Every structure is written in C-alpha cells, then in structure tokens.
Structure prediction request, 283 residues.
Amino acid sequence: MILDGKAVSEKRLELLKEKIEESGLYPRLATVIVGEDPASKLYVRMKHRTCERVGIGSIGIELPEDASTERVLEAVTRLNNDPDINGILVQLPLPSQVDTTRVINAVAPGKDVDGFHPYNLGRLLAGDPVFAPCTPQGIMTILEEYRIPIQGQRAVVVGRSIDVGRPMAALLLNADATVTICHSKTKKIEDEMRGADILVSAVGRLKFVRPEMVKEGATVIDVGINYDEQGKLCGDVDFEAVRERAGAITPVPGGVGPMTIATLMENTFKAARLSACCNNTVL
Ligand SMILES: Nc1nc(=O)c2c([nH]1)NC[C@@H]1CN(c3ccc(C(=O)N[C@@H](CCC(=O)O)C(=O)O)cc3)C=[N+]21
Prediction:
C-alpha cells in the first residue's frame, strides 16, 4: 500500500480551512529566509501559497546571504514582539556565519510553529508537547490516517537531527512504540533496520534503504530529499525494490513533504488559538 501524503495533506488542509473559518480568527505566519538558496525559496513559496489557501495571513522577511547573527536575531525579536504575528518560521539551513542555535533559541516558544526551540523539544520529550516539529508530526498524522498500529510496535528511526530524527523518536515513544534511533556510528545498522515494524529513514542518501534491510510487511517512511543523476527528486528508499516487501510505504515526492506543510498550517492555527484564548499561559 502506498501512503499518499499528498491526498492526506489535501484532506487535512480542507478540514483546517473550515476550522479557521469557524474560529473567526485570522492566524498569521511570518517566514524568515536568509540568502538565495533556490530550494529554500521554493519551500517558503509553497508555505506562503498554502497559507493563503487555508485562510492564514503570511509575511516573508528576506535577509541577504551575508546577514550577521545579530541581524537575524533582530528580525526574530521584532516578530516576537509583533502581536499580529502568531507563528515564526526561520527557514533552515542558515548560512554558515549565522549561529543557528542562537536564532532558534530566540524564537518565542509560543510562536515556535517549527517546534525547534528547546522549550518545545523539552515538552515533547516530557510527553506533553505543545508544538512538535512539522515533519515528524506530519508522519504521525499519516500513520493515524491509515490506521497503522504504533502501540507496542518496533520503530526504528535512522537519523538523529533536531528537526526530524530526535523528535520522530519522541513522538513514536509517546505513542507507545518501542523505539531505536540509528545513526552513522550504529553497528550492524542493517540488523537494527530489519527488526523494524515501522522504519523511518531521514538520512539524505539516495537508495540508502534496500529491500534486504526491510522486514516483510513493515511500514516504511521516507524522509529523504535527494536528487538522482537526472536531477529528479528522490527519497532515501529504493522505492521500486522496497515497495514489494513493505506493507506500506511513502513515496517521494507526494509522501512526507506535503504532510510537513499541512502540519505547519495546523501549528500556526494552534498558535493563534493559544494567543487568543489564554494569552499563552499554557506555556
Ligand atoms: N525552519 C524550517 N522548517 C521546515 O519545515 C523546513 C526547513 N526549515 N528547511 C527545509 C525543510 C524541507 N521542508 C520541506 C517541506 C515540504 C516539502 C514538499 O512538499 N515536497 C514536495 C515536493 C516539492 C518539490 O517538487 O521539490 C513533495 O515531497 O511532494 C519538502 C520539504 C521543510 N523544511
């Protein structure tokens, strides 16, 4: 079975659009992009377009490639203090001269719709999340939509980044999976992967997941963003070979990517509701 992230994201966005209408709120998202990376610009454009579709206002702050950490912090602080902005997304990666950790830590936790601030990562690890990172939260949504069992299942996450691997493991643990995190130093990684009922690959290597690493009937989630020799967008999974063994599998494109953006919209609506109802006192 192919897990159709595009279709699930469309369904969730329609639902969200109705909820926003009913709420009478007008949530607003601000994006911050530093430099001219074409992929980053494409993603940010997709986010703005989706905002418009569901009734979320959005503004884009664009800073030059050579912007200093202080300059980025200044932009974030201005957005933190702007009562008309509910959500702030600083597009990653930032250029190397910018201190990414300082920038992430500067975003007000109540506006941190990416869920990368240590406060929100801490809440997630404590099993009481407010904003969970969009990509892993979107993966949880697609697993739920297709009624993939999680409780008591063996989940293996390959990759330990702040935006995907670590929060993915925390979300699966919160849903009562038995979770293993693998990474570049893991011994016998293939044996670990073969034990997975749910295998999440966030590695960034073309054809990293081969059929012999996948248990028959497993659910395979492909978070990779890679380009093949012809410049075609591909995930981490050798899709055609692995789909035969897998019970369920996400394609690239049309899998995890659209779910990331749908979840960003849901997080932004949540941020607007939190600021409207209780002045962020839950934080
Ligand atoms: N602060 C921050 N938050 C992010 O959420 C964030 C980020 N920085 N930096 C980059 C990554 C990447 N990312 C994607 C979102 C959607 C698709 C997506 O919708 N992809 C389409 C294909 C798009 C295409 O044609 O390239 C798909 O998979 O079907 C992909 C990647 C969000 N990211």
